[in-house]
Amino acid sequence: MKMIQAIALALVLGGAAAAQAEQPLQRTDLIRNDIDVPGHEAIQVRVDFAPGVLAPKHSHPGEEIAFVIEGTLEYQLEGAEPVTLKAGQSLFIPSGVVHSAKNIGSGKASELATYVVRKGETLVVPAK
């Protein structure tokens, strides 16, 4: 009986991992914490992009620092030329600036996004 339960659990966990891996754009919340600036908090998120995937135009209620962990991402900030970053490079995105990011490489791309934002507001605001 224990062997059947173990096999069933492995199938469920394996299926969940496969379903998670198949998502074209996946955000994983890492930390959210109050900071010394009243009414603000720091948030850190890992964002994984499948090849060719675009994070549509959006903004944030505060600043973002994007650090490319792996792959190649192209960032388009409103009013600026596109910027291409590879693993180990960073980009500062000012508060409220509409932007998008696209994986332009042939493999998975990942970024570590660090935000300093107004507390209690929606983190990702789709552009109109």
Structural description of this entry:
It is a single chain. The protein is of the alpha+beta class and 128 residues long. The chain has a single domain (24-126), classed as Sandwich (Jelly Rolls), CATH 2.60.120.10. The protein contains one helix and ten strands. It has one helix at residues 2-21, and strands spanning 25-34, 40-49, 54-59, 62-70, 72-77, 83-86, 90-93, 99-103, 109-118, 125-126. The N and C termini lie far apart (55 Å). Mean pLDDT is 88; it is low at 1-20.
Topology:
Elements: H1 2-21, E1 25-34, E2 40-49, E3 54-59, E4 62-70, E5 72-77, E6 83-86, E7 90-93, E8 99-103, E9 109-118, E10 125-126
Antiparallel strand pairs: 1-2, 2-9, 3-8, 3-10, 4-7, 4-9, 5-6, 5-8
Domain Cupin type-2: 46-110
Keywords: Signal
Protein name: Cupin domain-containing protein
Features:
128 residues, alpha+beta, Jelly Rolls, 5-stranded antiparallel sheet, 1 helix, 52% strand, disordered N terminus, Cupin_2
